[in-house]
Design a protein that fits this description.
The protein has twelve helices and 16 strands. It has 435 residues and is α/β, with parallel strands linked by helices. It has one domain: TIM Barrel. α3 links the parallel β7 and β8. α11 crosses α12.
Length: 435
């Protein structure tokens, strides 16, 4: 641990009737010394601050975030993105390799990204490398430089300097990742021709341009390559519940395969999206109500491992809100600050517990990344004080993301983050580490 960091670590004692540990929910006292959890004792003591029924959660981990700096800081940036993350109870996020400029497909670009983050981070930030045609020789150096995963698109990314990887690049790199135990993260859509939109303002027309078979074909390919190479393979932002049977079979075969979905796929449904409402555009697209409920079932049975935001902001004009054209609008939903209450709102309504939510938003993503997390002795004291009962109405202008556009605007969500501690200290700018 760097000397300049260790001097800022704090001692802290908190107690609550609702402490969420890896073993579940309990009443407990959590003691922190020099930024590390040193004891989890009985609640019945006079030590520290009594939070009563406010819950103590571990800091959340989001392995799929687009912070867009350097080069596209007008889209987001380290300062605003990590401030929103901390306000939402996250203490670690991992930045995706595209939407910044340059994209993170070389060690030089990786170091430029780390340098750009200096002094701006409210939470810890890790980095994924990108796999594109022609950069296979850079992957080893980026792994040696500490990237936590390697991201590939199987379809156009929307960024010209981050083209789709082909099966040739996948076959070249997956055996190497298998040796290192580093995950390949895959945007799993394989495109095939579809009819042009008759009305680019109709959400149903946009949905038809990215049908379920795009995801199913891509995931079938990745299951085959995972089986062949033994590479840890992670499917990002699963939207199509029709993929769950083959994913379930892959799991039963004990393939090193993990899957995430996103809060927006678990909250919204295609039938509810008004025409012209481009704030809902993302890729893969939000599908129908029955699909949403099937995704919840996949999460409950752990065919889907965890949740990530795919926080993907852009300047307001790129959302084409005035024209409402889905063919022209940037696809991405900003939700770093809202992920925890959005998930808790929907989860609680389906009978899930806070321990389930913590599994999906902390323990499982940290495990995929090979990082320590959770409320347990010897782990950094990344803690969240959360009121699971307080509700609020979403107002985009009050969020800390750089831009206020959100499909959650006006929605009533349950659960508010009261405080976020990073290594025992209230999270603030400059406290985070570039991992």
């Amino acid at each position: 641990m760097p000397a300049d960091l260790s001097k800022n670590l704090r001692d802290l004692t908190l107690r609550s009737h609702r402490v969420i540990t890896p073993e579940g929910e309990c009443a407990a006292t959590v003691k922190v010394r020099a930024g590390v959890i040193v004891e989890i004792g009985n609640y019945d003591s006079d030590e520290g601050e009594d939070l009563d029924d406010l819950a103590i959660l571990p800091g959340l981990v989001d392995p799929h975030v687009h912070l867009n700096e350097p080069g596209r800081t007008e889209w987001e940036g380290f300062a605003t993105g990590t401030a929103a993350a901390a306000a939402g109870g996250m203490t670690m996020v991992v930045d995706m390799p595209l939407n910044s400029s340059p994209v993170t497909t070389t060690v030089v670009a990786l170091e430029a990204k780390r340098a750009a983050s200096t002094g701006k981070l409210c939470v810890d930030v890790g980095f994924h490398a990108g796999l594109v045609p022609g950069n296979e020789s850079e992957i080893v150096a980026m792994l040696d430089a500490g990237v936590l995963g390697v991201k590939a698109f199987l379809c156009p990314s929307g960024i010209e300097d981050f083209p789709a990887a082909t099966e040739r690049e996948l076959r070249a790199v997956m055996p190497l990742l298998a040796e290192r135990g580093v995950p390949l993260l895959v945007h799993a859509e394989l495109e095939s021709p579809t009819p042009a939109m008759r009305d680019p303002r109709r959400y149903a027309d946009y949905l038809a341009t990215r049908p379920a078979n795009f995801e199913r074909d891509a995931i079938a390919l990745m299951i085959d390559l995972c089986r062949e190479t033994g590479c840890p393979t992670h499917i990002v932002h699963l939207a199509d519940a029709g993929c769950l049977p083959m994913l379930r079979e892959a799991r039963q075969a004990e393939l090193p395969l993990t899957v995430e979905t996103c809060p927006h796929y678990l909250t919204f449904a295609a039938e509810e999206i008004p025409d012209g409402a481009t704030q809902y555009k993302c890729a893969p697209p939000i599908r129908d109500h029955a699909n949403r409920e099937a995704l919840w079932q996949g999460l409950a049975e752990r065919t889907i491992d965890f949740l990530a935001t795919d926080h993907s902001p852009c300047p307001p004009e790129m959302k084409q809100l005035a024209e409402g054209r889905f063919d022209l609008a940037w696809g991405g939903i900003s939700s770093l600050q809202l992920a925890l209450p959005a998930v808790w709102t929907e989860a609680a309504g389906r009978g899930h517990t806070l321990a389930d939510v913590v599994q999906w938003l902390c323990h499982a993503p940290a495990q995929m990344l090979g990082r320590e997390a959770g409320i347990r002795v010897g782990v950094p004291a990344n803690l969240v004080v959360f009121d699971p009962e307080e509700s609020f109405g979403v107002c985009g202008k009050k969020l800390l993301h750089r831009h206020s556009i959100t499909p959650y605007e006006g929605r009533s969500l349950r659960g508010t983050v009261q405080r976020t501690y990073l290594r025992g200290k209230l999270a603030s700018s400059g406290d985070g580490i570039a991992l």
